[in-house]
Fold:
Amino acid sequence: MTRTPARRLRRLLAVVASVAVASVALSGCLYTLIPEDRPLSTESAAPDVSGIPADLLPFYSQTVDWSVCGDLECATITAPLDWDEPGLGEIELALTRQRALSGEAIGSLLFNPGGPGSSAVDFIRDSMSVAVTPAIEDAYDVVGFDTRGVGASSAVRCYDAAGMDAYLYDIPENTRGTDAWEAELEARNADFAAACEQNSDGILEHVTTVDSARDMDLIRAVLGDGELYYLGYSYGTFLGATYAELYPDRVGRLVLDGAIDPAIPSIEVGEIQLTGFESALRAYLADCLQSSECPFRGTVDEAAADLGALYARLDRAPLTGSDGRMLGADTMVTATLLALYSEDSWQYLTIALEDVLQGNPDIAFLLADSYYGRFDGGYTDNSNEAFIAYNCMDYPDDTTPEEAAAAEARLAVEAPTFAPYAIGPDTCASWPYPATGTRGVLTADGAAPIVVVGTTNDPATPYEWAVSLADQLSSGVLVTREGEGHTGFNKGNACVDAAVEGYLIDGVVPADGLVC
Structure:
């Protein structure tokens, strides 16, 4: 049997594309409350239906029925299940909104935290101060929307909590790399895909980024905005760039932070990301080794080798957690990658590694659970199912066996700590529908300036992707944050914050190539 790492590398995006969620899970939920003396308003603006085809007018002309939900406003609108055949059925899209705190909104700022699969509705409700700065809250009605397939919108559903536990955490019975191991994981993936098809009410074929970009234009219109104002992190940059490609004349002020490069081949996405995480790991180890708390000693190379040996030991002899789950190498790698999103999380990784070396996997499980949205034996969202659904439809299987073998060989050199756990069966081989997405340059010719923010040692979306996306976009403007971690805005860098706020609030385009 020929193993094809391309799709397993693509699946690795599940561990690297949702840093906003990961950071909040580790740091606690932060709430931004509307002042008590400012009453909520649930009024709706007149929809913008200019230039809309007749068969889409029933959707574009709908009035948003806002209601009060806690300190925010919530609503549900309908969108076509199939944008090419709008009469075939409808789906629901969930929205939440915080009105501009100043009372004078520039417009609606749509927000996506990444993923694909992360709930913007939950993020705005629970973590507004992580999503945007106070100046943005003053200036805009901040709107979170769950993309199709996600959260409170018409959602991808696959397994119950017990089923997700088995899919995400169970350790294969067969030895890694053997034909029996391959067959076991292929059967597991096929069962998962069948469950998603059975439980998702017919939406899987239409859970794509192109469909979601069209949904976003619908949201813009029913909110009454003639142009789109948008802030997207990580995967949200791909969504925003896709929107700009589809509707360049409707682009207002877009900021894309932690960019995904839409032009690189599918196989290179996972390969480059994994190499970025190896770089972040080495930065973590260099920092760790300066502390007496570090579980490793010696050089960075020696510490990395010791960590690799720990993974191999867990692969041979998993540890039993206090809840009875077994911690194997794959879950420990997930825990590690989760903590590498941000320097603020490195301390948790140090504690987890020390505990695992002492035979206690509970903190490592907490890290992995934080990524997967698992809490108290249940799952707080459907981000894992939605992530797989989007990637199976967005990323074509266009890799030859020769290209896959070459990528595997490169990874062994570029990411030796993680490479052994990044190769395996194609998660999407049994998906009920073929991918409809393509990989290619997005130029958005004719669009207003689009600000792309990149961080120089971003492990999840490497800096080179931000450079590439800014170059591809005809009106792309690159802002660089020098530092560690994923994404650059609202991370304590005053220069980046000033550039983004200046554009979103005042329309002042940053100098292309600005370095902060």
Summary: The chain has two domains: 13-155+205-263+439-515, 289-379. The chain has a mean pLDDT of 90. Residues 13-155+205-263+439-515 form a domain with the Rossmann fold fold (CATH 3.40.50.1820).
